[in-house]
Design brief:
By secondary structure, the protein is of the alpha+beta class. The chain folds into two domains: 4-81 and 207-218, Glutaredoxin, CATH 3.40.30.10; 87-203, Up-down Bundle (Glutathione S-transferase Yfyf (Class Pi), Chain A, domain 2). 57% of the residues lie in helices and 8% in strands. The chain has nine helices and four strands. It has a four-stranded mixed β-sheet. Strand 1 (4-8), helix 1 (13-24) and strand 2 form a beta-alpha-beta unit. The chain starts with a strand and ends with a helix.
Length: 219
């Protein structure tokens, strides 16, 4: 049995980043699916007092907050390191991880992705077009900055895949399934090209929403 257990909602970009990182590390793991409506009540709150996903359990150690989980995995599974050894590249990775949490997710994907994908697919509700329109200016700001930081590099922090790529790609793939993706990436062609590189990796091919849902059923 795997020593790594991931508690997550299938389809969650945060959960996907953790699962994809475990795949990148060739680590064995087990997924425990969490129902969206259960995360704000017990017994799930005993795992994560703030009612979010994912949660990682490893050899009796429990950890939540995606960035903390990703950094932990990179430390305990050092093969194929996902943190640059060069200080400036590592700092760029840290910066982009923060951008993902605070600007790509908050106020952008948490609105556009939620209303375009989560509400119809999981809640059976129509999207709120006004909320989406209100989020688009913020989306353009964050996409412009990520495009600038990526520049002509293969990956977000330079020439190697890092934890920043793992987290941002999970969120970008969510947005790429919405009609807003085209306007948000217009004139920023390096972002779709980068996402295509990430999507071609085994770690992202085996952690799509459909594959993770199937994984949860088989658990």
């Amino acid at each position: 049995m795997s020593n790594f257990v991931v508690h997550s909602i299938p389809g969650s970009p945060f959960g996907r980043a953790v699962l994809a990182t475990l795949v990148e590390k060739n680590a064995d793991f087990r997924l425990t699916a969490v129902a969206p409506r259960s995360i704000k009540s017990q017994p799930y709150l005993s795992l994560h007092p703030f009612g979010r996903v994912p949660v990682l359990e490893h050899d009796g150690f429990r950890l939540y907050e995606t960035q903390a989980i990703l950094r932990y995995l990179d430390r305990v599974l050092p093969s194929s390191a996902l943190t640059p050894s060069e200080p400036k590249a590592a700092a760029r990775m840290d910066q982009i991880l923060g951008i993902c949490d605070w600007y790509l997710h908050q106020g952008c994907n948490s609105i556009i992705g939620f209303h375009r994908i989560v509400r119809p697919r999981l809640l059976g509700l129509p999207p709120d077009e006004a909320a989406i329109a209100e989020a688009m200016p913020r989306g353009h700001v964050v996409m412009a900055e990520l495009s600038r930081l990526l520049g002509g590099n293969s990956y977000l922090a330079g020439t190697q895949v890092t934890l920043a790529d793992m987290l941002v790609a999970a969120h970008m793939d969510f947005l790429a399934q919405t009609p807003e993706w085209g306007p948000l990436t217009a004139g920023r062609e390096n972002l779709p090209a980068w996402l295509a590189r990430m999507s071609a990796r085994k770690s992202f091919q085996v952690t799509t929403w459909e594959r993770v849902a199937a994984m949860a059923k088989a658990a």
